[in-house]
Automatic annotation (TrEMBL), chains A, B, C, D:
PANTHER family: PEPTIDASE M20, PEPTIDASE M20 DIMERISATION DOMAIN-CONTAINING PROTEIN. InterPro entries: Amidohydrolase, Bact_exopeptidase_dim_dom, Peptidase_M20, Peptidase_M20/M20A_hydrolases, Peptidase_M20_dimer. Residues 224-297 form the Peptidase M20 dimerisation domain. This is Amidohydrolase.
């Protein structure tokens, strides 16, 4: 019953791969998704229709403007850019007009801030679809997720007469940094959803394997820390400075040495640190992008509170001011058994799938958990599965590359799920 | 015999103050100097006529391009920008046509990377000449030096018939970071110079005071350090990362704790640190701008070698690659007694000068020492004096401001020096 | 069939508690065990009969001498001290003379280096059996383990006519630091053992609960690191020093910030750091006691290699010499199902036991795993169980205290196990 | 007029060298001084006659007891030990009975905590007078100072009939750590003193050179810092610990990176750090011995306040308790011109002295400045001179050794000073 050629999925994926955009700046990407969906005949919501600005965090106005200008310069349709406005993301709402459940599927738009490998052995280089945006790369698989999402959109159109109920295809911005899910949830778009599903390619699971219900989604908080000190001439009056960079370096080392926890897994990272103004000036400011994670909310909060105390101590040590802001969050979640069984049953029937596994340790965070919590809170059921893919290098590494054959496996899993949930019987 | 109104000096200084440009990007500033000099009737050299590109260090191509574009956008004459080319700096060469000594005076063009105070009590805010360039500020007094230099240029024109010999007014780029002097020296422009002089406003010396020959100019080396590690997903595979930011933070703390030296003064600063790519990625790169100083070359070299060893150790600890590059240098110097006596004698005769002091501890670095060394190497004589000025805050602080009345004192000192050296008798 | 009063176990435990001795210095403790065993009629081996000196690590000659002298001063029988010699530890070998399996049980002798709480609410203070040795405390439960071991010894004597085979009661020194098991294994005492069992009180498991086969015993390596630099007068010639303490502090922070691992649990601790010679001397030496752990041997080796590289980097940074020595080790292990089932079955029949649990995450290390590996290597079967006990504070904390009622539970579990394995039928 | 053989001075020095004792534990040393002085016929005060216990700091009761016991074991006369009591130090009070000024000279008793070199090329090893006390060494020259002091004592006796006035020979304990001067001053022994003098061997000044009045005695404060956290099992419950050692390591690095000061010299050292209880316990305590210095009291106070703030910040970061205690102090001082001239005049007349220098930068601290301040406060005059000596290695290094020929030069300088001040004319 599949209606799409595997090559079409691959082509879409490569187009997304070649033009990666980081969270909240996915203007060209959102526009490409909208245009493709609308060319299939879908109705598409975007901008504040799917994003509640009150809940947007980690939004860089200058980066947004630059990206809008770049999209325009790259020939993106100005009408569509106007519809998107200042908030990326979109959703196709496919209503069969026949009574039935509401199903939401979610795909992510954004890339990571990694410089893509220039090795000639790196397939995107060989096949000429490597990132055109220096410092940015789809090194997490979201390009593949979007390709699958478009494939599903096409399948819906091709089967519109056989289906009941309603499907919402959510193309979420800013998953990296776990920022986009909350404002999408707060737009209300999930509030009538009965079934929610999403999947992730890779995750150290080999090709031709499906994991139906990974465990150990880590709760996480994303925190920006900013130290403000006092500049001084480093030669003449070093004693008059208040060294914000020294405070930030000590904080970094204090955070990296947060203790592990006897009750479960922890993670901490200082992903970005920018400090100082000039070589011969005692640095008067420094900014840090921090994240903590824990196997559950208790452990995550322990990490957060310890991290905050350490930053406060370093600020005291160096007599500088500290400001902190929470920039993103994800929670842990419990999959619904009914959905897990359904995914396992579907997966076992997919010819290309050789192994079906009930669970694994995810050991990462995904703000899909925020969407899932919203759906579960009114009685909906949710699934999060992993579509195995041999990888050339781990997620977020510059030589990351997926096994493109698995796009069709993912497409099949999603479409079979819709068939089971919505096929008119 | 003065021919300029104090107010003119102040106006020039304020124009420079309002549009600060950092080292190697002083396009609008250089253009303003050239236009003013040429409007007086001076012949002006610029670009590669005064800068030998082979010796340029700490040059940021992107910043240069942005600054050229900004200058154009701000209405700077494109013909002048064309003459300047890619290398800022200029020199008026004033030849009387009469036999006599060659005298060079040096003034600096660049600002520091400090955000100017927005306090309403800050005079540049009150009087409406605060920096229009966010993050940049003339917080070292170079704006005043240039104003004095233009005043001297006017005086030369007004006294052209009474003078012998030749005067070169050097407007040097990139003194901060001690980068501009070496390529200016290597242009050959100083190779016929018999007397060299320059001065600095402020330096913790009160208004109406002249220090004829400060001591303890610190030898210094400016070093860029760059660490290259390996990115990895901070949640799923933190153990696969090679954390370049952690290496940089440890290096920073190890540098800040370089020992003091039993034989003389030392300084060290990590002025800028940028590291990491994204919040949830183990940071794969980090860059640092470092400087060390010593009371003499031996101590400075001790500091340099210790600093390099520490960075190498941190690179080993975190299994990351280290690259370093020397970006600037200044040396210590011995003033010529003949010039010191001359400066003291002149200063005592200036009505506004209440105190004349032979020496002080400079405790800083200035690449004028590189120019001086060049002049002294062929038998020329050199002076470096301090023009006292009450300051609102120390050099490189955001509330730094000079006592503008001292501009005229500086102007008088320079012009009297020329009169003593070059007046036809 | 129990033959001992619960109060006897408690009394023994309190005697051990009042006189704690750290690893390899348990002279008074070993003597007390020997005397008690021999008073029951047991044959006891000690010194090099149970310890192979070639495999002894983490042995402090001075501490050993001090402890021998202290034991003598405290009135311990000199003849027994002579038998013990320089190596603590002993074993009762109980041979029924009748054919049957050989069973080994293991109990630990040593305390931890923790200062016991002086709070009046702390039971050992109230009941007057707190540690008489400042800085040392049975804060891990080994006092209780020994009491159980003596109870089992009494039971054996009371049932000598009904039993087959042979029982070896091993009283192992230096479990803390996982140093004592290897030299005990290398004495050969386990090489005819068919069944091995040991247990641990507490471990965050509540009273009246038995866990039959905990998982996640962490592989661990104990490493001593020593830095040798160069002393210098901190006022006159600080630049001549090579600061070993600075190297050790950086190493400490670098070790504490070892990354977590995507594939399983990790631990790292710098438990002791001693550095420097005098306040006004640049420190020329520093010693550290370090441990790393990993959920399996691969992860543990990753931690070890990263730790070593970091120490080497810090040594390079500060131009000091590094020496390292491995001081102890423990491995992970797989319990034998046959033994697990037996323990569960016995535990279910103990009246005081309310909950029997198959497994838990141990999250710690115990060098019993080294003994177990030895037994399993020739086909023997092994069990390691947890005897739950409500605790006043966690292990190694100064207010740690066990629920003494659980001593009898532990005694019952061990003796029932012997009954099942050795009762003449 | 000299009355002592140079060889006698050398023998005394070697006896002191062979048995070094650290501050407040100089029992054998004090006893040797007392016995020698009394054998010459001097009256000697000791214990609380010269030390005011209320002002004693940095006193380790256990070390005192051990040293008393060791002195007894080494055969030191018990009667003399009884007279000394618990406070080391003594003073010969030599009263001519004739009217005249009161002169005080000061010599130090204590060694430093440095392990003496075992190189066969090290003279004390070759000549068999190396330290018999492991970890302790006269590596600062105090052994030579005492030898000179005894020589002066002999000279006084030999010239008792020719002299006027009174001489007090102070043998001060605990100069290292600048602890002994304050309680000696507070005993009142200096309150009638008209002239005070002391000297130091070495200080990077070559043999046969006298420096009459060194400058840049650094003000200093000696601070003990103690962190108290919470122990926990490093494997099972690392998150429950409060890591006092981590706080101490961060404090150490933060102190070592205290900024230099634009107005003058600074020093900082963390000379000793002891932390932690056991390898597998999160460290619950750590102690540090810290010193800061500054070219003047203002700079020293700046360093002290910054150091305290940093320690407080680190305590906050790691949620541990901080206690600090000031353990010693020295001040800067201004020599009296009259005394300086006198020293220079005497030095020029000593045959073995080739160079006489008015001043030098001392760059260190000596609590003689506390004694001097006491004398100057009631109008007395003071001198502190340096007796040059070629050194085998710098002060406080394990291969430190003096040129013993300079002992006689020092002796001559002191005795000539007494002759000039006290000779009956």
């Amino acid at each position: 019953m599949s209606t799409i050629a595997p090559r079409t999925l691959i082509n879409w994926r490569r187009q997304f791969h070649a033009y990666p955009e980081t969270g909240w700046t996915e203007f060209a990407t959102t526009a490409r998704v909208i245009q493709t969906l609308e060319s299939m005949g879908h109705q598409v919501l975007t901008g504040t229709q799917v994003i509640n600005p009150d809940f947007v965090r980690g939004y860089n106005q200058q980066a947004v403007k630059n990206s809008q200008a770049a999209a325009k310069a790259a020939g993106v349709d100005e009408g569509i850019l106007l519809r998107i406005g200042d908030y990326t993301g979109c959703a196709a709402v496919f209503d069969t007009g026949r009574p039935g459940p509401v199903v939401a599927l979610r795909f992510e738009l954004d890339c990571v801030n990694v410089q893509e490998s220039t090795c000639t052995s790196h397939t995107p280089q060989q096949e000429n679809f490597a990132s055109s945006q220096p410092g940015f790369m789809h090194a997490c698989g979201h390009d593949g997720h979007m390709a699958i999402g478009l494939g599903v959109a096409q399948w819906l159109m091709d089967h519109r007469d056989q289906l009941h109920g309603c499907v919402k295809l959510l193309f979420q911005p800013a998953e990296e940094g776990v920022r986009g899910a909350r404002p999408m949830a707060e737009s209300g778009i999930l509030d009538d959803v009965d079934f929610f599903a999403c999947g992730h390619l890779g995750c150290d699971i080999p090709s031709n394997t499906i994991v139906a219900a990974p465990e150990k989604f880590l709760s996480t908080l994303k925190i920006d820390m900013s130290f403000q000190g006092k500049a001084a001439h480093a030669g003449m009056e070093p004693h008059l400075g208040k060294n914000a960079l020294a405070a930030a370096c000590h904080t970094t080392l204090q955070l990296l040495s947060l203790p592990t926890h006897g009750e479960g897994m922890t993670r901490v990272n200082v992903g970005v640190l920018h400090g100082g103004e000039g070589r011969n000036v005692i640095p008067s400011h420094a900014q840090m992008q921090v994240e903590v994670r824990g196997e559950n909310e208790k452990i995550n909060n322990f990490m957060y509170e310890e991290a905050m105390r350490r930053a406060q101590g370093a600020a005291l040590s160096f007599d500088v001011q500290l400001e902190t802001q929470i920039m993103g969050e994800a929670v842990n979640f419990v999959p619904d058994d009914e959905m897990t069984e359904l995914i396992m049953s579907i997966a076992r029937d997919i010819p290309s799938v050789e192994h079906v596994q009930r669970s694994m340790n995810f050991n990462g965070s995904d703000d899909a958990t925020v969407l899932i919590k919203r759906v579960q809170s009114h009685g909906g059921k949710a699934a999060y599965f992993v579509i195995g893919s041999d990888l050339k290098a781990g997620h977020h590494q510059s030589e990351f590359d997926i096994d493109e054959d698995q796009l069709f496996t993912g497409y099949t899993l999603f479409t079979q799920l819709l068939e089971r949930l919505l096929l008119a019987r």
